[in-house]
Every structure is written in C-alpha cells, then in structure tokens.
Write a structure and sequence with these properties.
The complex is a heterodimer of chains A (about 110) and B (about 110). Chain A has about 110 residues and is mostly beta strands. Chain A is built from no helices and nine strands. In chain A, a hairpin with a 6-residue loop joins strand 3 and strand 4. By secondary structure, chain B is mainly β. Chain B is about 0% helix and about 60% strand. In chain B, strands 2, 4, 5, 6, 9, 10 and 11 form a seven-stranded mixed sheet that branches. A four-stranded antiparallel sheet of chain B has the order 1-3-8-7, with no helix packed on it. In chain B, a hairpin with a 5-residue loop joins strand 4 and strand 5. Chain B is globular and about 40 Å long. Chain B starts with a strand and ends with a strand. The chains are: A mainly beta (about 110), B mainly beta (about 110). At the A-B interface, strand 3, strand 4 and strand 8 of A face strand 4, strand 5, strand 9 and strand 10 of B.
Chain lengths: ~110, ~110
C-alpha cells in the first residue's frame, strides 16, 4: 500500500473550515484515499473516500489533486465535537482481507 | 451501514488469567472481520482478520488467538494474559467498498 504523510497536529477555530492535508505521492492507479477519525477513547469512524474526483457527503468534502499525489479533507464548519485524530489511508477498494494501516494521523483541536 | 457490538467496554485482569472478548456484527452478511490493538497515543495494529467462518489469519506473533464460530461473531482470546497485552482492542467489519466499521472498543488493563 502507498504510504501517507500527514501533519502531526492542527488547530482550527470553531465555526471555521478545517482543512486537513495528506500526501500520498506513491499512490497507484487503483488505490482509493480513505479518511477516518478517532475521537478520544472511541473506535475509529469512517468519514469519506474517493478515487480521483472530489467527493462530498454530510460529514465532509474530499479534494484530490489532479495528479492524485495529495488530498485535503475539509470539514466546512468545525465544531468542538470534531476534535479528534484524523487518519488518511490509501488502499484498494474491493473484497478480500483488506486491512487498513492506520498511522499516527493528524490530531485536530477545535478551539472555542 | 453495519453495527459492531463489542463488550465489555473496560476490563481489568490479573497477569496469567484467561481472556475472551466478543464481537458481533449486525447489518451485513459474510463480512471480513478484524481485531486491532491500539497502544496509548499510537496508531492501530492489526492482530487478526477473517474472511469467513473458521478462517483466521494472524498478522503478528503474540499471546493471543482469534476464532470465528459464526458468520457475524469474532472472538479474541488468551489462555494466560501478559502485562504487555494491555491496550485498547477494537473489532471491525468491512464491506465491499473496503469501508471499515469499528466497535466502541475494549480497554484492557492487565495488572
């Protein structure tokens, strides 16, 4: 699987957009970008995933660069409950024992 | 989406005692199932995964074992716990899109 690089930590003011970057320069053509988050002492939660087109759902937007070497997760209006560790993962979609490698992620702190 | 039930939420066990953590899945059939462990402040480490009943693959050698007696039941066990087995244990299930759904986790303290 391609490796991802994320900043260790970020702060964001409550109500503002949180933009979390991820570099995945070795991504291959059939690998998707997945984002999860983990709120303290809870299990990780799936947020969004995409291949090359930008994606949006009720939680967030995912912007993938044209060369697919990096992406940005956008939380449009961050709340205090969005404080969590955010993980960017690159993996193939599809069946099989597709374990996801969770690195150390980005610790996002939303400030009142 | 799938729902993962994990229990207990917290567990304190003495060194040398046995362990059994249970995980059940709702909302899907024939899922891939996973057991992860997370040390404090660290990422997730995959311990076991299963693609079907009775099929278990181990990712790292350790003091733990896993079993899948039913399609939507995954059990993590140990005959004798070690201090190093302490951690946050997470069960997960994945769908055809490789989206993983996690349980709430079990925080195990071995004393």
């Amino acid at each position: 699987d391609a490796k991802t690089t994320q900043p260790t930590s970020m702060d964001c003011a409550e109500g503002r957009a949180a933009n979390l970057p991820c570099n995945h320069s070795t991504i291959s053509g059939n690998e998707y970008v997945y984002w999860y988050r983990q709120i303290h002492s809870q299990g990780p939660q799936y947020i969004i995933h995409g291949l090359k087109n930008n994606e949006t759902n009720e939680m967030a937007s995912l912007i993938i660069t044209e060369d697919r070497k990096s992406s940005t997760l956008i939380l449009p209006h961050a709340t205090l409950r969005d404080t969590a560790v955010y993980y960017c993962i690159v993996r193939q979609e599809g069946m099989g024992a597709n374990n996801l490698f969770f690195g150390t992620g980005t610790r996002l702190t939303v400030i009142p | 989406s799938q729902t993962i039930h994990q229990w207990p939420a917290t567990l304190v066990q003495p060194v040398g005692s046995p362990l059994s953590l249970e995980c059940t899945v709702e909302g899907t059939s024939n899922p891939n199932l996973y057991w992860y462990r997370q040390a404090a402040g660290r990422g997730l480490q995959l311990l076991f995964y299963s693609v079907g009943i009775g099929q278990i693959s181990s990712e790292v050698p350790q003091n733990l074992s896993a079993s899948r007696p039913q399609d939507r039941q995954f059990i993590l066990s140990s005959k004798k716990l070690l201090l190093s087995d302490s951690g946050f244990y997470l069960c997960a299930s994945s769908n055809y899109q490789n989206i993983q759904y996690f349980g709430a986790g079990t925080r195990l303290s071995v004393l």
